[in-house]
Structure formats: C-alpha cells, structure tokens
Amino acid sequence: MEVHFPPEVEAKLTHSAARQGRNPDQLVQDVVSRYFEEETRFVEAVKRGEEALDRGEYITHEQVGERLQRFLQALTSRFSTPGDVTHS
After folding, report:
1. Under a CB-based contact definition with an 8 Å cutoff, are residues 13 and 24 in contact?
2. Distance CA 27, CA 16 (A)
3. Cβ partners under 8 Å of residue 13, min gap 6
4. Which residues, including other chains, have CB under 8 Å from residue 14's CB and lie 6 or more apart?
5. Residue 21 to residues 18, 27, 34, 55: CA-CA distances in angstroms?
6. Phi-psi region of 45 (alpha: psi -120 to 50; beta: other; left: phi over 0)
7. What digits encode the pLDDT tens for the residues 35-87?
8. CA-to-CA distance for 7 and 13, rounded, in angstroms?
9. What is the Cα 81 distance to its own chain's centre?
10. Which residues have CB under 8 Å from 20's CB, separation 6+?
11. Does this model's pTM top 0.85?
C-alpha cells in the first residue's frame, strides 16, 4: 500500500523520523498502529460506560461537580499552607 502526503506533511514526517533516528516508513507504521490501538481502547471504554449506564451505575453532573470541588479544595489546601516555606 502506498500513502501520499502533501509536501508540508511529508517534510514534517521526514524531519521527525530523522530526529528519532528512524526512517519515515517505520514512523508512519508505528503511528498508525498506535492510532488503531487507541481507537480500540476508546471504543471498549465507551462500551463499558454504556453497559454501566444500563446497569444504573453512574453519577450525576452535580455529583461530578461536588467531587471536583472537594478535590480542588484538598489540592489547594495542600499547596497553599500559610507560612509554610518548606518544599517536599
């Protein structure tokens, strides 16, 4: 199979492959393989999410907001202790 790229994309591909010490064909094959792996993981995650919804396992928008707020408050208090100049 042969794939054609516009000149500017081909130049970026050649440059990126050279920076990595690889040839452009190897780089394209790796990138396309990773894309399909990610696509498969995404589809599986969506399917698991849909199955969880069907089972009634979900949290509301408000619950997400509450959890995020608690997380941000804990994070803020952890990194902004008044008078604390030590770094761990």
Report:
1. yes
2. 8
3. 5, 24, 27, 28
4. 24
5. 5, 10, 19, 49
6. alpha
7. 999 999 999 999 999 999 999 999 999 999 999 999 999 999 888 766 655 55
8. 10
9. 31
10. 27
11. no
